[in-house]
Design brief:
Layout lengths: L2 E5 L2 E4 L4 E8 L8 E6 L6 E6 L6 E3 L7 E6 L4 E6 L8 E7 L12 E6 L1
Parallel strand pairs: 2-10
Antiparallel strand pairs: 1-3, 3-8, 4-5, 4-9, 5-6, 7-8, 9-10
Length: 117
């Protein structure tokens, strides 16, 4: 059974940094374009960042450009999200999954990021 496990969230002050990780078990995502998504309380899940299978193309939602960096480690089948200069509006549960809807697997538990002002 495929499972995505996100980690690295926590409570930080505005301006702080966190590094999120996503590990897939049950299958490899090494050749799949992957993305990070987030969902704040009372809001729909939204796209944050994506990286193609080669690691050569990345894409970000405007609100995180220049602050977040997505990367992947093939040896560990892991996708990372380095988040710098965090803002209170970044507070949300963060999830990873395939970028394209037709390649997605069931969503994991996510990792909570809370940014205090």
């Amino acid at each position: 059974q495929v499972q995505l496990v996100e980690s690295g969230g926590g409570l930080v002050q505005a301006g702080g940094s966190l590094r999120l990780s996503c590990v897939a078990s049950g299958r490899t995502f090494d050749y799949v374009d992957m993305g990070w998504y987030r969902q704040a309380p009372g809001k729909e899940r939204e796209f944050v960042a994506s990286i193609d299978w080669s690691g050569g193309r990345t894409n970000y939602v405007d609100s995180v450009k220049g602050r977040f960096t997505i990367s992947r480690t093939y040896a560990a089948s892991t996708v990372h999200l380095q988040m710098n200069n965090l803002r209170p509006e970044d507070t949300a549960a963060y999830y990873c999954n395939a970028e394209r809807a037709e390649r997605r697997v069931p969503w994991g538990q996510g990792t909570q990021v809370t940014v205090s002002s």
